[in-house]
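Lab intake sheet, docking and co-folding queue.

SAMPLE TYPE: protein with bound small molecule
LIGAND NAME: flavin mononucleotide
LIGAND FORMAT: SMILES
REQUESTED OUTPUT: full 3D complex as structure tokens
PRIORITY: normal
SUBMITTED BY: R.K., bench team

The fields below were copied directly from the construct record.
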Amino acid sequence: MSQARRLVLGSSLSIGGSHTSVWRHPRYWSDASINIDYFVSAARKAEEGKLDFIFVGDSLYVNDHTAPHLINRLEPLTLLSVVAGATSRIGLVGTLSTTYHEPFHVARLFGSLDHISRGRAAWNVVTTALPGTAENFGRDSHLEHDQRYRVATEFLDVVKGLWDSWEEGAFLRDKSSGVYFDASKLHTLNYKGEHFSVRGPLSMERTPQGRPIIVQAGSSDAGKDFAARHAEIVFTHQPSIEEAKRFYHDIKERAAKLGRNPNELLVLPGISTIVADSAAQAQQKQDEIDALIDIDEALKELERYLDPAAIARIDLDEQLAPHLDGLLTDGYQAETERIAQLVHKENLTLRGLALRMSTRAGHNPFVGTAEHVADAIQQWFEAEAVDGFIVSSGPIVPEGLHHFVDQVVPILQGRGLYHTDYRAETLRGQLGLPVPPNRYAQATT
Amino acid sequence: MSQARRLVLGSSLSIGGSHTSVWRHPRYWSDASINIDYFVSAARKAEEGKLDFIFVGDSLYVNDHTAPHLINRLEPLTLLSVVAGATSRIGLVGTLSTTYHEPFHVARLFGSLDHISRGRAAWNVVTTALPGTAENFGRDSHLEHDQRYRVATEFLDVVKGLWDSWEEGAFLRDKSSGVYFDASKLHTLNYKGEHFSVRGPLSMERTPQGRPIIVQAGSSDAGKDFAARHAEIVFTHQPSIEEAKRFYHDIKERAAKLGRNPNELLVLPGISTIVADSAAQAQQKQDEIDALIDIDEALKELERYLDPAAIARIDLDEQLAPHLDGLLTDGYQAETERIAQLVHKENLTLRGLALRMSTRAGHNPFVGTAEHVADAIQQWFEAEAVDGFIVSSGPIVPEGLHHFVDQVVPILQGRGLYHTDYRAETLRGQLGLPVPPNRYAQATT
Ligand SMILES: Cc1cc2nc3c(=O)[nH]c(=O)nc-3n(C[C@H](O)[C@H](O)[C@H](O)COP(=O)(O)O)c2cc1C
Ligand SMILES: Cc1cc2nc3c(=O)[nH]c(=O)nc-3n(C[C@H](O)[C@H](O)[C@H](O)COP(=O)(O)O)c2cc1C
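RESULT FIELD (auto-filled):
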């Protein structure tokens, strides 16, 4: 590796993770997901800690089983635009689905966010896991898993093409000659593919970052291939440093095989930290949070991965392994495979699995003193298991973020592991990701 | 009319109107359309003048003939979200097309803007006039004019239904009982119509205004019927007080026939004002602006209304009337009818029409001293030709807005015609428009 690796830290303002009942904690800001004041104040706190970016998730389908923190939420692009105006340096990562959107709209939304924020926009590309989503968009059925990634691949080709509509410096706005733009720098895409047909050009000049950064969060084989081709950041969940290492090297290799520089594809697992003055106090806080879990809520949450009708037929305290075939949905492939392994390895019952998935209790290496959390971060980073992390603003929202910024970040900075100020004006500059050249631009050598 | 009528004034930050070359004026902010600083500073100026709202237009298709101020622009919802964060009382009207969007996304975007702005969102519903738009969205052809309005009518039924998904007070967030929401106040739309099929519910609680305000800008018969059914504000272009009066009474009658209170449908023509210390100076400024017109630009602009191929075949200085059949497009029906009348009445050549459409020179009653402009506004309002106006931030952007706020508004306030402070926290409150009841709510009498 020619350049020194940089530790990357983002903050996920998307609330909740998998713990569905933590909103009942006395210090939890329980209407945060719909309250713009939460997002603005949390983003400012994250910027105070010089975190690289904030992340906002999304979904396009809810029903009365949806977890509290997901059922009532702001739309990501409007939310991030407000935050863009209220901050000056922190990156802004928003989620949007390629299965239920039009490339032309998406290119405009993220392009506009990049202009508005002066180069801080990133798009978390998701393919949408919940099949019910189809019914909100007049579709007969949800596309099958790998087909979703094929559509996504074409979607990205179109959006990137639209972002190249205008070369750098195309807009002259010369008042004396009356020339507003240089027509030789305007390019009409005329894309005709299997899933999309889009003429272009985009009604927007090249954005400050050349184009917004592409983030991706699928962990299946199809998801990793997609990431290797299109993404510059990969989000993931990794339960242990060993698994993280395998994932990290897998992703980097896939990118290298496609001729990409693996340093230009950053791997960032999501973590939830609990920081306290002693290990015992941290554990006590974890127990306090876990005690809030309601088995019904935990079961509802499991419906992301297990067929609801099947769940209803199984006894809570029966062994789950014999029932597993046909029980798992195809929404989150990497996660359902992990669930299957877990059930077999630990002989879990339905109740056991539900609680386990809702708490991940006792399995979180990022619970302890600030020193301990900083050590774990350093260890994972230096072992080349990760390029950094997306740190949840919870589990108790927003104090998780505050403790992280106030207590953990200064330790990492003190060790020379983390920057003490932003390095650049744009998120690309900050992350050391290159500005992609416009496909039409003449190389000037 | 039981209640005193209130004069309504909005500011259109959508740049340019029909004058395509005014950006060449030395004082014109020529990159305004892509510069968020313009929108934020103009919105703050408008708020200083207690204007009721700002308006941002949109389009989904450009080519190398598109006018300079339209070819390179920010996306309206992201733009307005930044403005929401930078202002506190002024209303935020954004444009989105029902022909090229999904109701579920649109309900979320405007619902989110209403939450973020604490009740200041309004949606300018357009059906999209430019046929080329189809090619940016993989469609074989653009829908025919009246069909676009039929789709729009259903679109609005769906979006309004989604906005009623949750009754007022549905989210309890009761930490002690663990009840996050009251399931009896959640309603799944299950809409199945001719053009749309949308399950719901929306993943967002009822917005501060009950729902965003609906604005509409079609002037054709189908457009006026649509407005009478769905809109709370109608934008329009009216060249004279007589025509404005006819339009005003036509719209109000259509609303009344549908059983609506005609006071709850406001009619606001767009105007461009030029203010100077004397009538002669104002005229001189108008001439200075008109002198910038480039006949090629003016011809390009005509392509909104006239078939480009046909334009190319006609001599610039030939009488246009004999060629008119088959020349007019169906995009902007009311406007093309007006063009046909004009060509016949004034025996216009192609050049004459192009210049006439680009300047509207000599026909603008809102050019003169501040006193004169205030008089004209008062006259149109008191004659019941309008409920108010959308005032352009141009023609010289942004000084048109500054002159209006600094010089015209104080005169209107001095006459007791215009408010000196906002009356309410929400745009509905400010405009005297009622909060629509949730369709599922039990009447509590
Ligand atoms: C850290 C992280 C964040 C995610 N955020 C979202 C999200 O906001 N919205 C969404 O629909 N899916 C989200 N996902 C789900 C992924 O996009 C993807 O659908 C899921 O991981 C299944 O993909 P796979 O089958 O390729 O593993 C997220 C996944 C991870 C790991
Ligand atoms: C004041 C005003 C503003 C408008 N703004 C837009 C706009 O931003 N985007 C758009 O596509 N159409 C816009 N229109 C066009 C109308 O939405 C509509 O397409 C056009 O008036 C033709 O409709 P009609 O055939 O019913 O007259 C505007 C029209 C008026 C009068």
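REVIEWER NOTE: The mean pLDDT of chain A is 92.
SIGN-OFF: pending second check by T.M.
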